[in-house]
Amino acid sequence: MPASVDDLQRALAERQYVAGRGLAVSIYLALRLQRPLFLEGEPGVGKTEVAKALASALETELIRLQCYEGLDISHAVYEWNYPRQILEIRLLESAHALDPRAAERELFTDAFLIKRPLLQAIEQTRGRPPVLLIDEIDRADEEFEGYLLELLSDFQITIPELGTIRAARPPVVVITSNRTREVHDALKRRCVYCWIDYPDAATELRILAVKLPDVPARLAAQVTAFVQELRRAELYKTAGVSETLDWAAALVALDREELDADAIDETLGILLKNQEDIQMVRGERVQAMLGRALARGAGG
Fold first, then answer.
1. How far apart (Å, rounded) are the C-alpha atoms in residues 282 and 284?
2. Distance from the Cα of residue 11 to its chain's centroid
3. Which of 293, 299, 66, 54 is nearest to 178 (CA)?
4. Of 106, 215, 220, 272, which sits most exposed with the smallest number of CB within 10 A?
5. If you write DSSP's letter for every residue of 196-262 in order, what string do you get?
6. What is the pLDDT of residues 200-237, one digit of tens each?
7. Helices then strands, each counted (H, E), the chain
8. In whole angstroms, how far apart are CA 63 and each of 31, 51, 116, 124, 196?
9. SS percent in the chain: helix, strand, coil, step 5
10. What is the pLDDT of residue 297?
């Protein structure tokens, strides 16, 4: 456990995650208060990376639940291993040892339980408490949030056949949302909330330097300035930090040492993932954006 916010920032930075002061304070408070951390923001701003970096900094396991439409308790929490239970019944029958009442007790035990990420995180008893990442909760159906309330409040899960299983040591819970729909207040109230915005130019340049140290300094400055300029445009889908990193890596792969309009046009598909956005930006608008980016000192 980091002793201070500054220690946490340093620990995350050593794992190549640049956390601003506001985010670092939220993470620190979530750790100290043993409350889930709810991170909301546009796709690609580094929400999932927080959980990965935090698990590494705390030297513990990362358990990830990727949410999607239709996610239910059998995929998120637990399910009974029915094929194995049926096999056990047949073995008892063949041995003429089937006692229905005894079988009912024996077939609903830990040995026949398939543990999914939420139960794994609650039940883990060895080593340090894991970091449980519940990624993109907004992709799951609203009803699924109801499953989480008991877990987020009391760090426990109730299985009707077994009873309530409580975490001996609460996991560090990180929940992310891209805000494709509003998450219920009942879930948010149980968490420390933090909105992650796109980084400013200086922070994004630092992220690029930390993540991709092989990118030439001049190119890195130009890439950062152009992406910042691009985010001012009214696009269907704005480029996130992950796209900035992908783009810089692509330019290096093409042996580019500085930006020009042709290089941008040829690689827009790395930055933008919508054809209408690409068509709108390509050509004269790229020239204008690049000009403004270089005018702000990114030309080196």
1. 7
2. 18
3. 66
4. 106
5. PPPP-HHHHHHHHHHH-TTS-HHHHHHHHHHHHHHTTS--SS---HHHHHHHHHHHHHTT-SS--HH
6. 999 999 999 999 999 999 999 999 999 999 999 999 98
7. 15, 9
8. 17, 10, 10, 11, 22
9. 55, 15, 35
10. 63
- In one-letter notation, the amino acid at residue 186 is A
CA distance 225 to 42: 19
Q: Which of 178, 181, 126, 120 is nearest to 151 (CA)?
A: 120
Token pair listed for 194:
């933090």
Token digits of residue 222: 């130009």
> Each residue of 62-107: pLDDT tens digit?
999 999 999 988 899 999 999 998 888 888 778 777 677 777 777 8
Give the pLDDT band (50/70/90) at residue 246: very high
What average pLDDT score do residues 17-31 get?
95
Q: Which element (helix H / strand E) includes 54?
A: helix 47-57
Residue type at position 35? R
Tell me if residue 184 falls in helix, strand or coil.
Answer: coil
